[in-house]
Amino acid sequence: MFGSTNPEIHLEAALGAVRSGDGFRTTLDALPVPTYMTDPEGAVTYWNSACVAFAGREPQLGEDRWCVTWQLYTTDGEHLPHDRCPMAVAVKERRPVRNEVAIALRPDGTRSAFVPYPTPLFDDDGTFLGAINLLIDVSAEQADALCDQASRCRRLAQATHDRQASTVLATMAAEYDDTAAALRSHHKA
To answer: Angle, nearest 10°, between helix axes 139-159 and 163-188?
Structure first.
């Protein structure tokens, strides 16, 4: 079961383990995907070793909120504050967040694209307990998409007769290529 690449299978295993009680940490520690939990205020309370490897850092109990990564960015390269990340939304709004992609920046400067699966946790009485999150690395897929975008920019730059527009498009293509290379270099490591 844990060898599956289907994140929903990992999420169901994690949720089942948490709901079963005290032994959940053993199950979560065995998951091959980065997994962490927060309390109802978003303070990170648990993380597995896959989480540390993915984030490139050991989260700080009592200090880290919402997320285990050092810094976050959108796929457009905009800084994403932790208090607005998908896990923060899941905790604040008490709902699962799906179909998001973010870029994690590690302290060593490497980046990874990932899809988070933040899911609120409730007890049998409906009391909100916090949330659990699985992080699925999609760096290779995002690198391919960035290369496609760079190629489109280069074609547009060659097709236009406006020198300024051509320069802007060529610069965008180079930036897309650089980000794709950064994602691929970590993915191969």
So the answer is: 160
What are the tens digits of pLDDT across the range 51-98? 999 999 999 998 999 999 999 999 878 999 999 999 999 999 999 999
59, two tokens: 């989260």
Cα angle, residue 30 at apex, residues 72 and 127 outer, rounded to 5°: 70
- Give the Å distances, CA to CA, from 144 to 148, 157, 165, 170, 182: 6, 20, 24, 18, 12
The first and second tokens of residue 98, run together, are 């799906």
pLDDT at 38: 95
Q: Does domain 7-137 have CATH number 3.30.450.20?
A: yes
Encoded tokens for 170 = 């060529």
CA atoms within 13 A on the CB side of 18: 24
Question: Nearest Cα to 105, choosing from 149, 57, 63, 65?
Answer: 57
Q: Report CA torsion sign: 40, 42, 45, 49.
A: positive
Contact 61, 67 (CB under 8 A): no
pTM to 2 decimals?
0.71
Residue type, 39: D
CA distance 145 to 183: 11
The torsion defined by the Cα of 97, 102, 106 and 108, in degrees rounded to 10, comes to 170
Tokens of 182: 């950064």
